[in-house]
Amino acid sequence: MDMQVLVAAVDKDVDALAGQMNLETEAVIVNQCDSFGYREYLHKGKRIRCFSMKERGVGLNRNTALMHAGREILLFSDEDIVLYPGYHRTVLKAFEENPDADIITFNFKVDPTRATYYNKKKRRIRWYNYGRYPTYAAAARRESLLKANVSFSLLFGGGARYSNGEDSLFFHDCLKKGLHLYARPEEIGQEVYRESTWFKGYNQKFFVDRGVLYHYLYGFMAGLFSLRFLYAHRGGMLKEIPFGRAYGWMKQGIREGKRRS
Known about the structure:
Elements: E1 3-10, H1 14-20, E2 26-32, E3 37-43, E4 46-53, H2 58-68, E5 73-78, E6 81-83, H3 87-97, E7 103-109, E8 123-125, E9 138-141, H4 142-148, H5 166-176, E10 181-191, H6 204-218, H7 222-232, H8 234-237, H9 243-260
Parallel strand pairs: 1-2, 1-5, 2-4, 7-10
Antiparallel strand pairs: 3-4, 5-9, 6-10, 7-9, 8-10
């Protein structure tokens, strides 16, 4: 098996990015900036292909990288990830040990305020736990994604109409198409902390956008899952906003999602 890293970047120096991320394999870098272009170079003897585009949106970025990918195993990544030495051996070994796996998520060291998961043991990812994983934690078999015809939403995520959720929608669609998703306990890199490009606080837009996302994820159960979400995060998200107001904004988002469907 061979692999590529698919890197989503915004306004970055692509010539320096391979070294900053400690890439040891081939990579496809899609850099959303103020110009269009293509170039490639060798880093540690591996081919780094760089595509520059003016359009914005993380979903568009990842779909563009997928379109240009050509190796058996694809590791999704972001510009602020530093991969550990030998990461590719860890990823390929995991797929060799799990021949039925279509997607495998791995651990990354992140700032405690941004942590949403940590895999303590190998486990299947199913409908009740897929929402905690970011895309940069995942590696996938390219052929599995092509056969299932799955891609990233252009409505959700940084630079898109709705501020986040493209990760959850992607894993949701993969499960819906019958792909096998696994979580592994190996840690293969770390995130360099930076300010979020989309998070502006727990305001009306945050909760409305979350409501739209929940419509697409949960359908007629969106209202119930909204209540569950708010109750679970009431200590951090609802310090200044009443529970009822936040729920009202999420219901507004659910209605907006229904109108879009």
